[in-house]
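the two lines:
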Amino acid sequence: MKVKDIGEFALIERIAQIVEHADERVILTIGDDTAVVKPTKLDYTLLTTDLLVEDVHFVLRTISPWRLGYKSIAVNLSDVAAMGGFPDYAVISLAMSPETDISTIEDLYRGMAEVARKYDLRIVGGDVTKSDKMIINVAIVGEVEEENLRRRSDAQVEDVIMVTGEIGASASGLRIILNPKLKTRVKEASKLEKAHFLPEPRIREARILAKLGINAMEDISDGLASEIRHICEASMVGARINLSKIPIAKGVEKVAELAGERAIDIALSGGEDYELVFTAPKELQAEIEKAFADIGEKVTAIGEILDESQGITAVDWFGNVKPLKISGYTHF
Amino acid sequence: MKVKDIGEFALIERIAQIVEHADERVILTIGDDTAVVKPTKLDYTLLTTDLLVEDVHFVLRTISPWRLGYKSIAVNLSDVAAMGGFPDYAVISLAMSPETDISTIEDLYRGMAEVARKYDLRIVGGDVTKSDKMIINVAIVGEVEEENLRRRSDAQVEDVIMVTGEIGASASGLRIILNPKLKTRVKEASKLEKAHFLPEPRIREARILAKLGINAMEDISDGLASEIRHICEASMVGARINLSKIPIAKGVEKVAELAGERAIDIALSGGEDYELVFTAPKELQAEIEKAFADIGEKVTAIGEILDESQGITAVDWFGNVKPLKISGYTHF
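prediction for all of em together
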């Protein structure tokens, strides 16, 4: 059965049933002119929006609708995490061809509903319309206490630069997805693919870091090098990264070899890791490492913040210092 | 100069300058992972999102970028008005071809900034990306007091049904835009076109109505008949509309004649009027009319709410009662 067979109102009805999330904070959900919810309670409200277009951001041939739904919400939650906050509400816009199978749309929203439940996000409204290509817009409302808000502009000279988790898995997963011949030759292939399809927003980790008193924070969407540059530019500081310290995910080396690339380049500019990169006073490093050990998560010091005049540099395996090569994703 | 010549970050910089709105409620605007704002203050937060796709919702050949920007925000503000509330914040997603002229994008955001300033809306963040067709998603956060919230489901049997302003102008304007030969033959052509391109959200009028104690309210986006059905279905009531009472805008009759249609059909199902249709206890009617006379705006009683068993009917000019023909816009 196709979307055109049931029409707009029946489609909205089905979506509403999938994303329903009974909650005392939700007064009116899908079905009126706007959603009506309880206001956020903390000092600040966080607002973010993200537009995904078929064949620009995703290819329906290579990602299941469920995973696409999951990922489209997860990457926005990652932005909320990067501010030190947590999510409350989402409104979703979807455009699709009238020829789309209803089951595709239902699976998409089931994936969204799954990640929403996991991270206590309420999907409270949206818009559906037609277009040749599928288009998804996710807008999220979150909140944060004034003292836990983390700007990218708050890095301080002498801060240690750290990252959560491992880097390069998502970009390596993408290479495997686009070139399935790699699949049998990389032992970690399914883990790398999962990193690409189902990123987990680091909300819990970001809250821990914010409460510990770190300075600047970003999530890694464009690429590690590009995010470090964002922090440096916004904070008017320089940075030096130790390439040998970057926690490259298992399997990235093998993918790089097979794809004729360098693992470090995939890690620096591959993007979509949705890990956190942050800066903290050096004296906090041990406490951060302990907190992460306690929850069984990885965190790694990869460099330090310097005076702006020092620029942004990388120390390679031989101790040579060169400008950090920055080639994160840009849309135009 | 084209978008691809300046790239994503320079484009965002230009947009930020256009929509900038210094305000004590805005803590962090465009440039970090999310926007950071002060929470809404009233009982309830309103959330709405709307996706507009080139060649589905607009044709760039027939609408200037400035007007497109203005309208894309205005129609969302109309949804906030229909709840009895007022707007606070917006985040905007835009996808465009890298070949788009920068001036097109700047004009689009200038139109958005104009309507935002007019209705005290702060544009605080967004997303830009590429696609073949232009895509605009507007997500708005508003607020309302519990006692002023107006649901579509609150119509009561014996309520009077009223509409603000005049109906059919926007749909008639669209007919002129799509068939410019009509232009010279309709005296009110430019006024009708303006109604289509630059709708004004009835925020002030909706606030007055909510405070006066009306029951259900909707803005007219899909078409008057369709909105009345929405109210009736949500409220589980019937309705009878007097077709002769519907305040049809000047010029609609002439456009209908030239286009081989009936003016009443354009008024009932043309849509995009962005006037308010609402129901109120009969004893409020005189007070509502006085309040609107005081501000120099039009309001008209067009029918009444009946028991659900009576269905939704229309009384024609000869006193005949027939089912109301409902053919509002549906997307599939």
